[in-house]
TrEMBL record:
One of its GO terms (cellular component) is plasma membrane. The keyword Protein biosynthesis does not apply. Residues 4-83 form the ATP synthase F1 complex delta/epsilon subunit N-terminal domain. Produces ATP from ADP in the presence of a proton gradient across the membrane. This is ATP synthase epsilon chain. F-type ATPases have 2 components, CF(1) - the catalytic core - and CF(0) - the membrane proton channel. CF(1) has five subunits: alpha(3), beta(3), gamma(1), delta(1), epsilon(1). CF(0) has three main subunits: a, b and c. It comes from Methylobacterium brachiatum. SUPFAM superfamilies: Epsilon subunit of F1F0-ATP synthase N-terminal domain.
Length: 133
């Protein structure tokens, strides 16, 4: 089965580096699955879960809160604003993220920024429900 190289870099550490068969990304324009030979794309990421498929039936899930993905035919690099393996997430950590986004939203008068933060809050709440935290 064909593979490509995937690097996932968070602000504090590299969360993944290796050969994979597919990566599902929460792009701002919608979910997208990247496979070997993908056309070059640079996309921003929203709050969500990146699903890494290492081989059939084997993979990892990583929570991401914003960032960018540089996609090419032989490699994908994700630079995340905030990220953590699913196993490290807790109910409290997601609640802190929601509270921080709400405080930012309430502190700004920029309507576009408020709308963006409202979207992030909804995405965080959906992620929390999806992960049953």
């Amino acid at each position: 089965m064909a593979t490509f190289h995937f690097d996932f870099v968070g602000p504090e550490r590299t969360l993944y580096s290796g050969e994979v068969t597919a990566v599902q990304l929460p792009g701002t324009e919608g979910e997208m699955t990247v496979m070997p030979g993908h056309a070059p794309v640079l996309t921003s990421l929203r709050v969500g879960v990146i699903v890494i498929t290492e081989s059939q039936g084997s993979g990892k899930r990583i929570y991401v809160r914003g960032g960018f993905a540089d996609i090419g035919p032989t490699a994908v690099t994700v630079l995340a604003e905030r990220a953590a393996p699913i196993e490290e997430l807790t109910h409290e950590s997601l609640d802190r993220d929601i509270e921080a986004a709400e405080l930012q939203r309430d502190a700004t008068e920029d309507l576009q920024k408020r709308e963006e933060l409202n979207g992030q809050i909804v995405q965080l709440q959906e992620t929390k429900a999806l992960l049953k935290l």
